[in-house]
Amino acid sequence: MNATKKYIAEFIGTLTLVTLGCGTAMLVGCNAAAGSGYLLTALAFGLVIVGMAYCVGNISGCHINPAVSLGVLMSKGMSVKEFVGYVIAQCLGALAGAGLLAAIFGLGGVTDMTGGFGSNGLAGVGGNAVAGLLVEIVLTFFFVLTILGVTSKKAGHGSFGGLIIGLTLVLVHILGIGLTGTSVNPARSFGPALVALFAGNTAPISALWVFIVGPFVGAALAAIVYNFLENEKNA
């Protein structure tokens, strides 16, 4: 498949993830007293993955997440050049998605219930960056480990792969939303945080490093563990 088409697919997929996932969070809020907001947001993110997996999965693999791309890179599923192209496309897609939300909510006069375009934060862990980092590492580890297992040529999940991955994202969101807003995706955090900064809200950008470092560390650990488990030499 042409590399440019893969990058376009990743751009579209990440744009869709941020627009529909963060957009849902902005609309329904993430208040612990109203658990339905948690579930709706979790389902929105998970269902986007399901839809995009069957939409652009055959073109780019539907990573739409730099952490996932890192896991695939470390599992020798792509080149460094492709990895860089994917990450750039994903970040641009996330930025475009957040910008689209800013336009929709701004022009429509709709209240952003998250206060930051669905950006991630540390309020749920008392502002403790170490706790937030740990949450993101653990959740991303489980998420990427599942992806590597489902997409392995030995797995044999066939057409159910996208559904399994989407449901796993729903699961990690159910726990993570109340803690960090659930990133497990540096691009998904980058886009809303940058748009929030342009809108005058500096809080998301100040904690952004947590949602870049955490997912990358979690993904790297997942790749190391999965590669060890799958390697027949270690059997």
Please render the helix and strand layout as text.
Layout lengths: L2 H26 L6 H21 L1 H4 L5 H9 L5 H29 L20 H23 L9 H20 L5 H13 L4 H4 L3 H21 L5
Helix pairs in contact: 1-2, 1-5, 1-8, 2-7, 4-5, 4-6, 4-10, 5-8, 6-7, 6-10, 8-10
List its traits.
mainly alpha; 235 residues; single chain
Total helical segments: 10
Total strands: the figure is: 0
Which structural class do you get from the secondary structure elements? mainly alpha
CA gyration radius, whole angstroms: 17 Å
Helix content: over 70%
Largest sheet: none
N→C terminal distance? 34 Å
Order of helices and strands: HHHHHHHHHH
Q: What fraction of residues sit in β-strands?
A: under 5%
Principal-axis shape: globular
Mean pLDDT: 94
Low-pLDDT stretches: none
Describe this structure in words.
The protein contains 10 helices and no strands. It has 235 residues and is mostly helical. The longest helix has 29 residues. The protein starts with a helix and ends in a 5-residue tail after the last helix. The mean pLDDT is 94.
What's the short version?
This protein has 235 residues and is mainly alpha-helical. The chain has helices at 3-28, 35-55, 57-60, 66-74, 80-108, 129-151, 161-180, 186-198, 203-206, 210-230.
